[in-house]
């Protein structure tokens, strides 16, 4: 079967791979659609970041070259022995997170985690084998394309929880890439009255408006801090940092009110220079988030299924597996108006 396989930095190959046999407790998923993630792009542009290239990963037991893709949904083709709750024909979204499972889910991920599609073979292919516990049933109201968006939207839902955002809060979202757009959506769904989105790309800002942003600011043209302070004299209740660079990190604190929260959602590829007195002097609290708990993943499906979170607007292109390098990774590298690109595998609804 054809797969997009990561060999090294700027070396992603679409090639034939052996179909794997099912292990105990696994289900074989016929992949319908799979999204390209910012972390996939990191692996392509500057990897290995997470990909286990030197030795086998602890949790997956696998090593590069690996099939990428961790945001995917499909139809169950086959179930292994000991599979109890999933049957052939079920439509499922994959939670790609693998953990040791020794702790409560609130702490579990901080005890070490691996990702299906980064630390082990993933979904940019015809069939993906995953543990039963990682396959979540999709309601009839959700398409497999929606299913491929659950993972990035779950990141945003977890971010809103970690930031303790409440009904009536005012919010700023720095960065309108896929996760930033999903954060706008999640903040609105969670009761934010004002959501200001900031980015350098007009196209992405337009998308942010579609997702529910009440104001958009192009940080390339205007001073983001002054502009937000004009809207909210005391600052916003919650600022989400979803850009991952030094200027937005500092600005996100600067626009937050005393006792408000700045939440780091992005992955910082590089260290920054920063003086913690910026917190001491402002009374802003800072928190961070990574991925999502199993509960949050299920809640995200429930919220998407009921229509409370409508995420399809973050998709900017749909492409074929054969075109994944040029129209997928290269497009995301070079064209900052792109947000979420979905790869069509079986193409089933
Ligand atoms: Zn992702």
UniProtKB/TrEMBL annotation:
Required cofactor names: Zn(2+)
GO molecular function: (R,R)-butanediol dehydrogenase activity; zinc ion binding
Keyword Metal-binding in annotation: yes
InterPro entries reported in the protein's UniProt record: ADH-like_C, ADH-like_N, ADH_Zn_CS, ER, GroES-like_sf, NAD(P)-bd_dom_sf
Domain Enoyl reductase (ER): start-end pairs: 8-343
Gene Ontology CC annotations of this record: cytoplasm
Keywords linked to the UniProt accession: Metal-binding, NAD, Oxidoreductase, Zinc
Flavoprotein listed as a keyword: no
PROSITE patterns: ADH_ZINC
GO BP terms in the entry: butanediol biosynthetic process
Protein family according to the UniProt entry: Belongs to the zinc-containing alcohol dehydrogenase family.
PANTHER family, alphabetized: (R,R)-BUTANEDIOL DEHYDROGENASE-RELATED (PTHR43161:SF23), SORBITOL DEHYDROGENASE (PTHR43161)
Protein name: (R,R)-butanediol dehydrogenase / meso-butanediol dehydrogenase / diacetyl reductase
Gene source species: Salimicrobium flavidum
